[in-house]
Design goal:
CATH architecture: Up-down Bundle
Number of domains: 1
CATH class: Mainly Alpha
CATH topology: Na+/H+ antiporter like fold
Helix content: over 70%
Strand content: under 5%
Number of strands: 0
Order of helices and strands: HHHHHHHHHHHHHHH
Length: about 325
């Protein structure tokens, strides 16, 4: 499949179309609205379903196959927020609170981007490793790294590091992903067959509804563009591309498949807008939400869903060819 076909497949996928529809609905001021309980139910269902499916796949994965990707992911969870913080401080001239707050979002993971990346592979019928949900959970530690940097720079905080660690590890994404992984790993294929109609067949339909809601949320954030400035617009696009290339490259260098390295690149390129804001608000109250939320949700998420995913996948395919040609 050539680049144009990959791009067409992504742009015409139900997920991207639902996301665009949600943006259009908000821009034209439609009265479409998801009740808060419905939105929470959908997000809980999707995260749990990802965890269970990943756990079932993980049950058939050896420790040797999983160890290197886990080490690389932990490295990225430390390195990405660290260099984001330095760029924001030295190039963007942000104060420590805002630099650490933004870095926390880009050092963490967007569950929507991860789900969209996995669905992207499914649409292309490309296989990937079963332990990928575990890598998502490991990448969440990027929030803690960024907030620790911010606390160190400010030399004070009303929230202890222990509270930050606890709140991050007990957050919705980590609990549902890790809990689902444990469930799936325990029940295996025989147990999964009993719940597959709910956590398998319905998954993509519910995901379309979730992307519709995310499109509406992202469009509302677009109104804050004037507050983030040209630097943050560029940061919200350029940094995901750099992170995506780094994630894909490291994934393939340690032996991951094209599909697996693509997903690693996608989650490295993503920016959190669900778990990270809560942690930042508690630890760095002086950080400006209109800056870090507009950047992660209004700029990076739409870019990744529409352009980033096919870009990272095409790079993963091309990199595999290059590595093969040089005998790696």
């Amino acid at each position: 499949m050539d680049t144009v076909e990959i791009l067409r497949t992504n742009l015409l996928s139900p997920l991207v179309l639902a996301f665009v529809l949600g943006m259009i609905a908000t821009i034209v001021k439609s009265d479409i609205e998801f009740p808060e309980p419905v939105y929470k139910f959908i997000s809980i269902y999707l995260l749990l379903a990802i965890g269970i499916n990943g756990g079932v796949e993980l049950a058939g994965t050896s420790l040797a196959e999983f160890l290197l990707p886990a080490i690389v992911t932990i490295f990225l969870a430390v390195a990405v927020p660290a260099w984001c913080y330095l760029i924001l401080r030295r190039v963007g001239k942000f104060d420590p609170s805002n630099a650490a707050g933004i870095a926390a979002h880009y050092g963490s993971v967007s569950s929507v981007t991860f789900i969209a990346a996995v669905s992207f592979l499914e649409a292309l019928d490309v296989p990937s490793e079963g332990f990928l949900p575990t890598l998502v959970a490991l990448m969440e530690w990027g929030v803690i790294v960024a907030l620790f940097i911010g606390r160190f720079a400010l030399k004070r905080s009303d929230t202890s590091l222990r509270e930050v660690v606890r709140d991050t590890l007990t957050g919705r994404s980590v609990i549902l992903l890790m809990g689902g992984l444990l469930m799936g790993f325990t029940i295996g294929e025989p147990g999964y067959e009993r719940i597959e109609p709910v956590f398998g067949d319905l998954f993509r339909g519910v995901l379309v509804l979730f992307l519709l809601e995310m499109g509406m949320v992202a469009a509302r954030q677009l109104r804050e563009f004037t507050k983030v400035g040209p630097f943050m617009v560029g940061f919200g696009i350029v940094m995901p591309i750099i992170h995506g290339i780094i994630g894909v490259t490291l994934g393939q260098l340690i032996g991951m498949s094209v599909g697996g390295s693509f997903v690693l690149g996608a989650i490295t390129a993503s920016a959190s807008y669900i778990d990270a804001p809560a942690a930042v608000r508690a630890t760095l109250p002086r950080a400006n939400p209109s800056v870090y939320l507009t950047s992660s949700l209004g700029i990076t998420l739409p870019f990744n869903l529409i352009i980033g995913l096919p870009l990272y996948y095409q790079y993963a395919r091309q990199l595999q060819l290059w590595l093969y040609q040089i005998g790696m």
